[in-house]
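So, read this over?
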Amino acid sequence: MSLVIILMVSIIGMGAFATFATESTGFSEAFPGIKPHLLTLASNFHIPLYRDLLLSLGICSVSKKSCINILSSGPGSAITIVIGGAAESLAARPGTADLTLKRRLGFIKVAIQQGASLVPVFSFGENDIYDQLSNEKGTTIYKMQKTFQRIFGFTLPLFHGRGLLTYNVGLLPFRHPIVSVVGRPIAVNQTDKPTKEYVEQVQAQYIEELVRIWDTYKDTYARERTSELKLVD
């Protein structure tokens, strides 16, 4: 069985990297036989040295062709997608969980076409390791960030963490635990041409499982939250 692992994330995605690109959380022991491939933008592979670092960690392109190649490579093959991407990173702030998900249907369609189960994953604490400047919708900063995203395919959150000698300003993440909770697999019926209704049906199941994860673990891993889970787009 192949898997499409979908991760909810923040500005950088430390939980995704630690869990699915390294063995720091003991993934292979917890899920024997599953080989995850963390995916990122294809443009990242055009940067010298950075490209080699990504490849050395087994990170692959998030293009549709790449997803299909991995999922069709045999049982246990899994792709890990940070589905919110640039849009979600702009809304990432400590204590919040605003997810960009409602109109993201492409990953579901690929999973159905390949007959791969969907596995929701929520990383509690992701939004608490960095803060960013105010960029509410309608502000000049927000407009500039969205324009940059339309041109280059990614955006640049104006974030900060801590420094080596100060805890208020710097690029190091704040000291805060990140706990990635793996949800229950959602099986799909394989079909090369899924209808819009079936794709939306699977999406509803995915959202239901994601909400279950949040409601079950929020009082354990998100005790300092300032708001509840929101599907913003």
